[in-house]
Amino acid sequence: MSEKEAIDCEEGSSSSDRTKKEEALLCSAKLHIEEIRTQKFSIGKNQSFPLTQDLHFAVTNLSKQLYQKDSNFLMELILNADENEYRADVEPTLEFVMTQKDITGTGAPATLLVFNNEVGFSRENMDSICGMGHSTKKDKRQQSLIGERGSGFKSVFLVSSQPHIISNGYCVRFLEEPDQDCGIGYIVPHWVSGEPSLSSILDVYGLCNVLPTTTIVLPLKPEKVEAVRVQLSQLRPEILLFLSKLKQVHVRRCDPEATDDFSRFCKTSGTEQMELYKATSRVVQLSVKQRKGDSEELCKYYLWEEAFPVKPANRVGIRMNVQKWVITLAFPSRERMGKATSSVGIFACLPTEMVTNFPFLIQADFILNASRDCILLDNVWNLGILECIPSLFVDAFQSHSLHSSVDEPFEYLPAQASPIPEFNKVKESIRTRLQSLVIVPCQILEGTLSFVLPQDAVRVLPKFRDLVIGIRAKGNVLSGSSSSLLRKVLHPTLDLEKYNAVLKFLDVKCADDHWYTKCVQGLCNPTEDEMVIADSIISLLECIKFLMSSSLDDPLVRDFIKSIGKSRFLKTLNDYKTPEECVLFDPAWESILNQTDTPTIDVNFYGTEIFQYKNQLRDIGVKVDPLSVCSLLSGILTKLANQPHSCYTPDTTFITRIYSFLNKFHWRPEAPDESQFQVWIPDPPPGGWIMPQQCVLHVNHVRKYLFSSFFWLDELYAEELLPLFSSAFGVAENPSIHHYLKLWETWASSENLQVTLVECCSFWEYVIDNWNPKVEETLRQKLTKLPATKSTAEEIYLINRTEVFLADDLQLKKTFLSYDEAPLFVWFPTSNCLSSVPPRRLYAIYESLGVRKVSKSFVCKPHTILLLEELDKIDAQDGLIGRGLIKLILGFLAGPEVNMPLKERHNAACSLIKLSVYKLERPNQVIYRLMPSASTTVDVKKVKLVTWKKISHRLLIDNSGYRNGKSDPEFVTAFADELAQGLLVQARHYAAALSKLIQWGFMFDFNEKEVDFWLMRENLELPMEDKEFLSAAFLSSTELVRGKRASMETEESGPSTAMPSCKKLRQ
């Protein structure tokens, strides 16, 4: 609109300098608006419009349903601009200018002005805006959603309540609120004769004195200002990509503080060209300039477009008459522009918000949801379009338009998974189609470019390419087998880490060890051994020397060298062998080893020049160092040992030379395992291989007869070779504990289960001399039988360790010696035996092996039943229990070792004082029992001289013992033991000491003076409480016995408590 037209709109009158055409245009526009208001909305008429309220609600609801997001109004304005008509001499441009000025006088905090250099509004355009569902674009564009609903302009009401339109003489505004005259909002036009003024618009536009033909002024709602600013800042250059007319979009702010807030998007299209009969390809260049003074950022897009017939099953609604889908794929030639960093991949003229993770863009006539942010994935129309994309992509991939370089087409493969399941189906369909096409470029040497199926191509390590080039540079000719493999090596520009996902997508595999080995064999090996000439091998070694000097630590080079080591191409004195089987024989070894003893490389064939490549031969596996030769020789020994003896008889001198070489260079197995090595025993002829455990280096001549089944190597080999057998083969220098145990097992398995005295002494002499924790543990685990003897016989039997006892109590041993059916006690050397087996050491060894002690293993059971009339109570004056005895016992119990509490001491003393003493006229017999095993019981009868019956407070004593008194030491001992063990049931380890103290007191009749002396000698002092207890218990120095019981019951003669472990017994 010209300036004069705007002034007329403001003043409503003609001026002399306005042309007749402009006046006619202005008047026609005003008349048209008046016509719409009068005829369509009945404004100014006396009659009311009957559907006024319904129409307003319909418009309001439609706008709310269609445009649920604020950003929709921008998309609709851009689409409308792209569908507008333009003169041929202009470049279609859309400009958004935002200002904080209220140029409409509506009180808006900010205003958005939209400028478009189209031809301007027509009557049809205005009629469409003033109606519902009457788009002027429906008939012009069947293949897009634009104009489908006829309400695109209504989206501006999302951000503005009073949008203004100034174009071709029209100067109108629309109100969101219902019109006062007709009660309808949104679509009722109001002529504007005041603000905005031409000067205020020019002040905002600011570029020139002539405004674009169409200006839309949107005074923004307060709550929408920030949202509009954000939406404008988020516009991307790619909005232009699939538009048909619009070439530029400008976004800027017209405020002093935002002079740099500026963006300009431009699109330049290349020449369209037909690549296939059904496809069109073109190049579109987008540019963006984000600040004034900045240089433009450019990005080219290759567009590939095809038309597909619409299937009947995919037709829907308004598209029922559409005959074809036009689908376009856009491939960015570089990383998408800084203003297009989002992963949006779906366009319906303008971008949606759908992220596909595909490296290309998809444009089609998709049916969108109401907010235009995503396509409807359950719509058969859209699903039909998606089914066409794999075919379209493959056509574009195979065309030459994408092939600016070998690898560039592969950048567009959809290798990443899509967050949308329907697009993952598209991705898998593309993969399936591509895997059946010969599309993967392969090249390892220049001039050998070829294409293969994805599954036939192989990826190789980068250094392998250098390796092949190096071998080729050294003059090696590639054989047919290696050439066929190398033709399938992936092109180097594609075999990069950044293409890992793409190559995995195509199922391109990496070369494995087998592939490398096969290829290397083709590089290095001729098809026939006879064709291997010396010069070729020297050339190969020279090539290896070059590679190792330049790539010493490269894993691929090492793998390559390893592969060569498995190829049979080196000539030895006998035949051709692999490098790993060969030896570069050092002349210095000839004094020890013959060249024919090993697979020696034929130096006469290759010449002495081959020694210059010692390091390279070592690298491919040839044995050039003494230790590596030792490993090979040890393998030869192992093979010889595993051969059937009937097939081959080894040469002893040959084996001795090998042993000499191994010993000379101190060879040791890398992983010692005695079971894999055997020792050659040449004597007696014809010799044989023996396990190291059956050999020893030396044997004491005294014990040599014991080991007649073993082999003594000091009698078979020279002294200087013996260290080899010990250090490398594990041969014992002398018989070990294992050798002795093997002998012991042999003796134990004999028919009579006996061992001679000399054999037994020899065994235990070795054990004692070599005793240590390891020997102890070995005996615990493996020595199951021990030597044992009967009462009188001198024979030594080997009995199960659990069935014999250790005689720690000689009285008990004497008691059980009457049992002569089987040995019960372990053997000990007598005085006339070898002095090198000390009994005390042997006793300790038996203990450590867990042999049961007889004192802790026997059980005492009563045998004699005593009747009441057989018991004779002793007169109190003749009592054994008096003040001296009690004093002696109290002193011991209060001593520092026992330290029995006061109350327990006095209770113990009272238990003695209350005893009634009875003598027995006939012996009181008990049974002593041992159980060597669960099925064997040994019972022996014995007379018990003293028995303490605690429950009935009686002390029963043998009459003969009582009569003899202290002159009978056995009775004295029995008396002292019974009392001591009865008093110290909970502390039996002190019973022996108390028993000895009581025995001493018995010998002095428990005289108090002697008792006091002995207590002092033993550093025992009677506490004051014990003295007071004694004074109260004994009224005078007379030996009174208290607490005698008057009655007597018939009872068994055995003790009421278990027999203590240290009890001394009488036969």
UniProtKB/TrEMBL annotation:
Domain Sacsin/Nov, chain residue ranges per copy: 71-172
Q: Which organism is it from?
A: Rosa chinensis
Carries keyword Lyase?
A: no
Molecular functions (GO terms): kinase activity
Q: What is this protein called?
A: Putative histidine kinase-like ATPase domain-containing protein
Q: Which UniProt keywords apply?
A: Kinase, Transferase
Instruction: Give one Pfam family.
Output: SACS
Give the matching SUPFAM superfamilies.
ATPase domain of HSP90 chaperone/DNA topoisomerase II/histidine kinase (SSF55874)
Q: Where is this region: Disordered?
A: 1045-1067
Cite the InterPro entries for this sequence.
Answer: Auxin_embryo_med (IPR052957), HATPase_C_sf (IPR036890), SACS/Nov_dom (IPR058210)
**Organism lineage string:** Eukaryota, Viridiplantae, Streptophyta, Embryophyta, Tracheophyta
